[in-house]
Write a structure and sequence with these properties.
globular; Rossmann fold; 4 helices; 118 residues
């Protein structure tokens, strides 16, 4: 509930980068994808998180994909087939994609419920 610009997103992204980056070298090609899931209550918040993820994590070499309602399902299916390390999603569309793709989430090591109070 801290004010905008106080570092809430960085507070969960920095440990996520550290954990996934370190583990990526340990597990190599054995990784199951996605390895992290960030659920946001709105498209706008998810989009802001993706932007900040790309800015803050540009040297970490992690692939990120978005799964948002109102976007092309075909593009999102393709993005998931590209094996992203991190998926930033809204809950409704993510559930729909999981069902349609019969997606397994047994590789997820890190989950964030952004603005969980919403």
């Amino acid at each position: 509930m801290a004010r905008t610009g106080s570092g809430k997103t960085a507070a969960f992204l920095i440990p996520l980068f550290e954990r996934l980056h370190v583990n990526k070298t340990e597990i190599g090609t054995q990784a199951k994808y996605p390895r992290a899931l960030i659920l946001s209550p709105t498209r706008e918040l998810a989009t802001q998180t993706v932007k900040f993820f790309k800015e803050l994590g540009r040297f970490v070499n992690l692939k990120v994909s978005t799964v948002l309602g109102g976007e092309s399902m075909d593009a999102q299916f393709q993005a998931m087939h590209d094996k992203p390390d991190v998926v930033i999603a809204t809950p409704g569309r993510f559930m729909h994609l999981c069902v349609e793709m019969e997606m397994k989430l047994d590789g997820v090591e890190y989950i964030v419920f952004d603005e969980a109070d919403r």
